[in-house]
Amino acid sequence: MIGLSHYLIVSAILFSIGLMGVLRRRNLLMLFFATEVMLNAVNIAFAAISHFYHDLTGQMFAFFIIAIAASEVAVGLGILIVLFKKHGSLDLDDLASMRG
Amino acid sequence: MYEMIAFYLFSALTIVLFLITVMSKNVLYAMTSLASGMVLISGFFFILGADFLGVVQLIVYVGAVMALYSFAMMFFDATRDIKEKNTPASLIFLLGGLSALVLVLMFAAPIHSEAIQALYPIHDGAGNAQDVGIVLFTKYLVPFEVAAVMLLVAMIAGIILAGKKMDQSLTKDTSVDAEDEILIQKDAK
After folding, report:
1. SS3 for B147?
2. Partners of B121 in beta bridges
């Protein structure tokens, strides 16, 4: 039978995949994708805890996380477009202009 | 039984798809696998009885966020493979694996679960949407309104950031044209 731990372990694995992406990628768009993976992993954990403890609070937090993720993407993509117009690339190594 | 099959199927597929998202060199592959992974995550929500959350996940993530990404893709050169100087893979896998281990240990640790009481319990008779609606519009009304204002601010920010100088081409190299224009202006003088 599938218990709470199963869902939490899947959520932890997905979160670590997202963390690995954040650490590994140098392209800003790919960093955004990795962030989405992490947010989704946390949402699974919230929904699972909400289900197994018969409490709606977890689902409420998941809703607000989805709202925050949506606004993050809207602002972030605007910034990415401005950056791409300015530098012609989204690579973090090209964008590092404050090297001493 | 069916729950078990669905759980293992969804979890295996999501892990594989998100690994493709994180590892792929091609933006289009990464985006497609991210979108399908999000559809499968809404499947998790449906298994867990959070129907409304699953529908919101489908509409907001798969509908809105991925559409936004694909529109933004038109500004970037999406067909070209991304060349990036990655940090050494062994270090990253070590760090990722370690954090996975720590998280699993934390989540799998035994807790004194009798002490946990449901603050807003799920009612058996009512559907999930009714339950969520009642709690969202009574206990979480202020955060809900703040989230609405935040979305409005994000929309204005997105319009201003992306909409400025929309008439200029992104793919054409405008720096050469600008220099030419300066020369032309000098010649005219």
Report:
1. helix
2. A55
Single-letter residue type at B29: Y
Question: Nearest residue on chain B to A14, judged by CA atoms?
Answer: B15
Please give the Cα distance from A31 to A23 (Å, whole number): 9
Cα B65 to Cα B71: distance, rounded to the nearest angstrom:
10
How many folded domains does chain A comprise? Answer: 1
Measured in angstroms, the CA of A28 and the nearest CA of chain B are apart by 11
**Mean pLDDT to the nearest integer, B139-154:** 93
How far is A42 from A63, CA to CA, in rounded Å? 12
| Residue B115: per-residue pLDDT | 73
Chain B hits for A38, Cβ within 8 Å: none
| Domain B1-82 fold | Four Helix Bundle (Hemerythrin (Met), subunit A) (1.20.120)
Q: A15-67, pLDDT tens digit by residue?
A: 999 988 888 888 888 899 999 999 999 999 999 999 988 888 889 999 999 99
Task: Quote the ipTM score.
Answer: 0.91
Q: Please give the pLDDT value at position B116.
A: 74
Tell me whether residue A52 is in a domain: yes
Residue of A nearest to B46 (CA): A47
Closest CA of chain B from A39, distance in Å: 11
Q: Rounded distance, CA A94 to CA B39, Å?
A: 34
Find the closest chain A residue to B156 by CA distance.
A75
Tokens of B81: 């493979």
Rounded to whole angstroms, how far apart are CA atoms B54 and B50?
6
> What is the token pair recorded at B182?
């300066």
Over residues B6-64, the pLDDT tens digits come to: 999 999 999 999 999 998 888 889 999 999 999 999 999 999 988 999 999 999 988 88
Of A1, A74, A84, the CB nearest to B76: A84
**Which of A13, A26, A52 is most worth mutating to test chain B (most B CB atoms within 10 A of its CB)?**
A13
